[in-house]
Every structure is written in structure tokens, then in C-alpha cells.
Amino acid sequence: MLPDLDGMTVLHKLVENVPSQPVLVLSAVPQIATRVACIEGGAADFVAKPFALAELVARVRARIRERAPGPATDLLTAGPVRLDLRSHKVIVQGRESALSHREFSLLRYLMQRTGLACSRAELLREVWDMTFDPGTNVVDVFIRRLRAKLDHPDRIVAVRHVGYRFDAH
């Protein structure tokens, strides 16, 4: 509903040009399909208008906490995969790939639990901050994107009837 471009185009341009920059969408279009499209398109969060200022501030603070550097190291390593926590890049055998905010959050979550199965509900809750399953394949879409950026697509393993597991080997 912007005068020259629609919001989805703006979002896609932001994600494409500055992939490490989290985008919080404020929209007067509250339909679930719009929310899902924005999240799948790379938005870090979505707030529908009208909104309470306290909620907006809490969501911004949550995103800032996500971006805060860890005290011990700027790299998370699992086998040959290194995740640069500052630049939001994955480095595998010397090859760097930039990650969107959501790709980064998902890979970080999986790598921190290397070898453990993570359910789709858990990933939606922890990575997308959704307390319900919107009935979309957003997790599968982002897993597919991450697999394309890793050295072996089978490094993220589908666990039947559960979700996914990151394997370092």
C-alpha cells in the first residue's frame, strides 16, 4: 500500500542488498497469507497495525538480543562448517556464503544442537518466534536454501515425522 512500490518489493530489495540486516515489517494488511509471505521473504518479524507500542518495543529488543555478539567467540564451528556470528556468513572449506537473517538464525540454532533432532514446531518457535504452526512449508523452504549453501546438502538431515538435524560429519 505504498505509493510507488509495494511492501514485498521493498522487503525483497532490502534482503537482497543487505542480507544481514533484520527487517521488521509494520503493515496495515494483517492477513495470515501476508504475514507468512513476509516471513518467508526474509523479514525478521511482522507486526500488524494497529499495534501496541510496548509490543513493538519488545519485538525490536528481541531482535537486538539475537544480534548481540557472543562473549566467547565470533565463530560457531561444527565439523568443517563455520558460522561467523558477526558477519552472518557460513564458511565451508574456505568458501563463504552470505546468509539472510532467517537463514542465519536457523543454521545457528541447528548447529548449536548438532546431532540432535529439532522438530518443526521447535524451529518455528525458536527461529520464527511463532507459537503456532501456520500450516506453511516455511521451515522446509529455508532448509532447502541452507542446504544449497553448504558443502553437502545432506549435512542437514530430515528426521522423519520429527523435523531436521544438523550433522557435522
Briefly say what this structure is:
It contains six helices and nine strands; from the N terminus they run H-E-H-E-H-E-E-E-E-H-E-H-H-E-E.
What does this structure look like?
By secondary structure, the chain is an alpha+beta fold. It folds into 2 domains: 7-67, Response regulator (Rossmann fold); 75-166, Arc Repressor Mutant, subunit A. The chain contains 6 helices and 9 strands. The protein has helices spanning 7-17, 32-40, 53-67, 101-112, 120-128, 138-149, and strands spanning 24-27, 45-48, 75-78, 81-84, 89-92, 95-98, 117-119, 156-159, 163-166. It has a 4-stranded antiparallel β-sheet with strand order 3-4-5-6, covered by helices on one side. It has a 3-stranded antiparallel β-sheet with strand order 7-9-8. Helix 4 (101-112) crosses helix 6. The longest helix has 15 residues, at 53-67. The protein is globular and about 50 Å long. It starts with 6 loop residues before the first helix and ends with a strand.
Give the class-level CATH name of the largest domain: Mainly Alpha
* CATH architecture tag of the largest domain: Orthogonal Bundle
Overall shape: globular
What's the arrangement of strands in the largest beta sheet? 3-4-5-6
Q: Total domains, how many?
A: 2
Mean pLDDT over the residues: 86
How much helix is in the residues? 40-55%
Number of helical elements:
6
- Spans with pLDDT under 50 lasting ≥5 residues? none
Instruction: Sketch the major β-sheet.
Output: 4 strands, antiparallel
Radius of gyration: 16 Å
Name the CATH superfamily classification of the largest domain: Winged helix-like DNA-binding domain superfamily/Winged helix DNA-binding domain
